[in-house]
Specification:
Helix content: 40-55%
Largest sheet: 5 strands, parallel
Oligomer: single chain
Shape: globular
Length: about 160
């Protein structure tokens, strides 16, 4: 599977580790940077490119996913979610990694490099990549509501 990665300075070492780990496990990592430590770098520069890469691959019918990394993962998730069609989830446990795919069909996960060990984060990525979307009607319906809102600005109806 092709996996796009982007981060900021706080996630650089973890991104480099994950890039090597992905290669060792038969995946095709695409590193969108940064490539050198710069304490003043801006996460949107790299995380938007990673999310764009996933969206472009998906548009072409490829089954790619993405990983964005920062100190907390919050800003990186927000950046990835600005890319049309991308659903990015902040992951902080194996359960959130699994549910991001299983229930939300997330294409990108965001991880806080200062919040978890390398081993924990690697496991989150492993779970995320191995988990398929369940396809359950309720989850597909909810994703459809988000997609409709994203493309038309139309709010979903209420039952009240």
């Amino acid at each position: 599977m092709r996996v796009h990665l982007g981060c900021d300075h706080a996630g650089l070492e973890l991104k480099d580790h994950l890039t090597a780990w992905l290669t060792q496990h038969g995946h095709e990592p695409v590193d969108h940077g940064p490539f050198a430590y710069d304490a003043q770098d801006d996460y949107p520069v790299f995380c938007l490119r990673a999310a764009e890469g996933v969206a472009a691959d998906r548009e072409e019918g490829l089954d790619s996913l993405g990983i964005v990394i920062g100190g907390s993962g919050n800003g990186e998730q927000m950046a990835a979610n600005k890319v049309r069609g991308v659903r990015a989830a902040l992951v902080w446990s194996e359960d959130t990694a699994r549910l991001a795919r299983e229930h939300n069909d997330a294409w990108v996960i965001s991880v806080g490099g200062r919040m978890h060990t390398v081993e924990e984060t690697t496991r989150f990525v492993e779970v995320f990549l191995a988990t398929p979307f369940s396809g359950e009607e309720r989850h597909a319906r909810r994703i459809g509501q988000l997609t409709t809102y994203e493309t038309t600005g139309e709010l979903p109806g209420t039952d009240a």
